[in-house]
Structures are given as C-alpha cells and as structure tokens.
Amino acid sequence: MKDHLIETSGCIKCGACINECPVIATEGVQRFSGPRNLGVDAPRFLPDIGATVDNIMMCTTCWRCEEVCPANLPVPEAILHVRRQIFSAPNMLHGHRRIAENIDKYRRSVEPRNTHDQVSPRGKGEVMYFPGCIGKERIPSIYESSVGVLGKVGTDLWIPEGWVCCGAPLEKIGDWDRLRMLREENMTRFEGRGEIVTSCPGCTSHLIAHYNLEPLHTLEFLYEDIGMSRLRFKPNERTIRVALHHPCHLVRTIGPHVIDYAYSILNEIPGVKLVEMEDPGACCGGGGGVVAGYPDIALNLATEKMRKAREVGAELLLAPCPFCVLNLGRLDSLEIMEFISFVNERLE
Ligand code: SF4
Ligand code: SF4
C-alpha cells in the first residue's frame, strides 16, 4: 500500500500544469488555486497549512498536470497526500461525510439500491469479477452487462461473497483509516482469486496501487485475454454516430493502451460511425470526490464534455468508466452509456 512522502522538488515554474488543469479552466484561479500551489508548494508547509488549502478537494485527480509536467512531478499524488495529511473527520465536506457514513453502514461508497446478485458466488471460477460500488448499486446495467459479456465469451466467473468498496473514494477524500479497513476485509474475501477483472478504472488502479494486485479492466481482459476473434457482433440494425470519452483514470493511471482497445472493438461493431470530439481525454468531472464535494464543478466539467460531443454530431457518448457515466448522466443533453453495456447490446 502506498504510504510514503511524495517528492515534488524540481518544479521549473513553467505553468504547463496550470494551463492544462480542467478545474482552473472552468472555475478560474480565484476559486481553485491549482496543481502547482496544491501539489508542489502546499506539501512543503505541512502540517501547518490549514486553511490555505481549503480548495484542495476541488481537484478531480484527472492526472493531466502530471501528464504535461516537463519535470515529471507526481502532482496528483502529492495533492492526495496533502488531503490525507489534513484529513479531519469533523471538517469533512458534507458530501464526503456521506461517503464515510455509507461505508460504515453498508460497506459501499453509495447507498445500495440493487440487491440482485446475478452471479452466485458458489464455487470459484478462474476469473474473479469485482463489481465496484457505482456499477453495482447506481447503474446496475453496468454490472449486469459486464457479467453478461464475460459469460458470452465463455469466462468461468465468480464474485467474492461479501465484497466491500475497494476504498478508492476514501483515498480521494483523505480517509486512510477506513481505506485500510476495507482493504483488509476485501483481501480475506479475495482468497482463492485467480485473474481479477473490474469494470471501473478507479477500482482497477486502486487495486494495483493499494492492494498490490494485478487486476485487468474489462477492456483489457476482452482484448488481451479473450481476443477480438471471439467477439462476434450482431449485424447492423441502424447506423449510429458514436463519440468515445477517454476517462482520466483509464488512460492516465491504467494506461493509454486501454483506450486503443476500445477503438479496436468499436471498429468491429457494425453500424458504429465513430466521431472524434475535441480533446476526448479532457476530464468530465466524475473523479476525485468532486461529484460529492463540489457537485457544481463536476456539472460544469460534464457540460463542457457533452458540448464537445454534440458539436461533432454524436448521438451517443460512450465512457468505459462508471463514475464518468454517473456524472455525465446528470445531464440529459445526449445519450451516455458505459462502454461494456454497449458491447453487450451489440454482441451476438
Ligand atoms: S489532477 Fe487534474 S484537476 Fe487536479 S490539479 Fe492536476 S490537472 Fe488540475
Ligand atoms: S508543469 Fe511541472 S514544472 Fe511546470 S509548473 Fe507545473 S509542476 Fe512545475
């Protein structure tokens, strides 16, 4: 589990991170002081930084600042480290307190709404599927489609009985005591695991970084382990103009190869006319605990994303991430769908 100081010395003050930060672009520096201030300057003043970082929870952890930093500084990780250092239960934002309360009550980051378990955890197949809180409890079609697709391609699947939230939302709000507790609970439930597959890039990257496991996102599993030749799609019913959102935690924490897999799959689906929106990797606002902490910022970023997709004539926006689908789905300006759910619809 990551538990170390984050080194961010060597900043050359080029400002590239500030220019690229999506929260600065929508909210301005008056509201959000940005990556250099929060990830490079603030950590030096720990533990006495107090109110100087009261906007630190506005960062969506999109990882864009690190991507463009010529000094390769791990700015988002440094911001998460500051969040952890200043975490204080009495001072939590209202939305973040709800996450912690949901964890205490339900062992999910959101209140459960879907009690239906499609796969019995009886026996243990060769692949362990980890559903994640949003896909299971908020957008059950993601859970059902993932299980459906994995079944259609012949995967012998099991879901760990009594699984709990992976802890990724707690890392984002700085609550490491609860994060450790969840990790311990899950690790006992994961016993007997073979390969691990998840639907959520946030779960995937969290299980890699904090559990020292090697899970695959469903896209990686389908492309690398199953192979394109085993994906057989229905003949074209109607041609549809589809845009693909590149989720931050998919392309910048798991890796850019995963979005290439998504394009390869889309290119094989009859009736899909791909349209490329401007900056498809721009953050939609769904991550970093911002939907819960500052829903107005998350909505501003989602609005911008939808505008770009509509601008190129998309009829459907696909996102291989439950958090992005949840946030973008708050707007009804364009149909939004999770990637594997679309694949499930189109598979024979
Ligand atoms: S991770 Fe994204 S939102 Fe956070 S400071 Fe960096 S660029 Fe801005
Ligand atoms: S991009 Fe990197 S080097 Fe440039 S100001 Fe930001 S943190 Fe400093």
Which tags fit this structure?
348 residues; binds iron/sulfur cluster; single chain; 3 domains; Rossmann fold; 18 helices; alpha/beta
Provide an overview of this structure:
The chain has 348 residues and is an alpha/beta fold. The protein has three domains: 16-86, no CATH class; 127-226, Rossmann fold (3-Layer(aba) Sandwich); 230-346, Rossmann fold (3-Layer(aba) Sandwich), CATH 3.40.50.1860. It has 18 helices and eight strands. It has helices at residues 16-20, 22-27, 34-41, 64-68, 75-86, 94-106, 133-138, 140-152, 168-173, 176-189, 201-211, 218-226, 248-254, 257-268, 290-293, 295-311, 322-328, 339-346, and strands at residues 127-130, 157-158, 195-198, 216-217, 240-244, 272-274, 316-319, 335-338. The longest helix is centred in the last third of the chain and has 17 residues, at 295-311. It is globular and about 60 Å long. Bound molecules: iron/sulfur cluster (2 copies). The site of one iron/sulfur cluster has 15 residues, from helix 2, helix 3, helix 4 and helix 5.
Please outline what is shown here.
This protein has 348 residues and is of the alpha/beta class.
User: Kindly, what is the distance between the CA atoms of the first and last residues, rounded to a whole number of angstroms?
Assistant: 41 Å
Coarse shape: globular
The structural class is alpha/beta
As a whole number of angstroms, the C-alpha radius of gyration is 20 Å
Helical fraction equals 40-55%
Task: Find the CATH topology of the largest domain.
Answer: Rossmann fold
The run of helices and strands is HHHHHHEHHEHHEHEHEHHEHHEHEH
Strand content: 5-15%
List each distinct ligand once: iron/sulfur cluster
Unreliable segments of 5+ consecutive residues: none
| Count of all domains | 3
CATH architectural designation of the largest domain? 3-Layer(aba) Sandwich
SS element count, helices: 18
Largest β sheet strand count, sense and barrel closure? 4 strands, parallel
Strand order within the widest sheet? 2-1-3-4
What would the average pLDDT be, to the nearest integer? 92
